[in-house]
Amino acid sequence: MDYDADSTALVVVDMQNGFCHPDGSLYAPGSEAAIDPVGDLVDRVHDADMPVVYTRDVHPPEQFDDAHYYDEFDRWGEHVVEDSWEAEIVDDLPVGEDDHVVVKHTYDAFYQTELEGWLNAHGIDDLLICGTLANVCVFHTAGSAGVRDFKPVVIEDALGYIEEDDREYAVDHCEFLFGEVTTSEELSVG
After folding, report:
1. What CATH number is associated with residue 41?
2. Cα(35)–Cα(39) distance, rounded to whole angstroms?
3. Ranges for the Isochorismatase-like domain (predicted)?
4. 164-177 and 139-147 helices cross at what angle (nearest 10)?
5. What is the total count of domains within the chain?
6. Is 31's pLDDT higher than 80?
């Protein structure tokens, strides 16, 4: 699959210490295993002068204090709290000077963020999506991209997960509902 660097961006979802590092509160070995494949994609995309967007899941400590239903701390425990080491992108994925970082407060990187406006301002139509967790933030971000008329393309061998079945579920549903799925090997950027 060929993607034009002028109208495509790589979206790296939540490759943060809290999820990818063994000392993280929501560490999953599958997320740590995604670091190298994601890093390889970032390198290829940088070489092609294609934009890279990193998302960071960040929660202010009081975010869910008045929640009626939606409370990620209740669901997952306290994680990636604002200004914490957990909320930082892993050291193995250095953010480039021209890369864009989106701070989000929920699973969906488009919800109450500037992501859609930034992509539109840069003429982006297609999104190559990788990162973690496959069936949570990657899935919700890809679906949200699709309903906003961006073409989401999930890179299945560059996804973090808790259980292999979670990754398979997310990949199958992404392909079925709103986008395409490919592998790093099948991907051509330039």
Report:
1. 3.40.50.850
2. 6
3. 8-186
4. 10
5. 1
6. yes
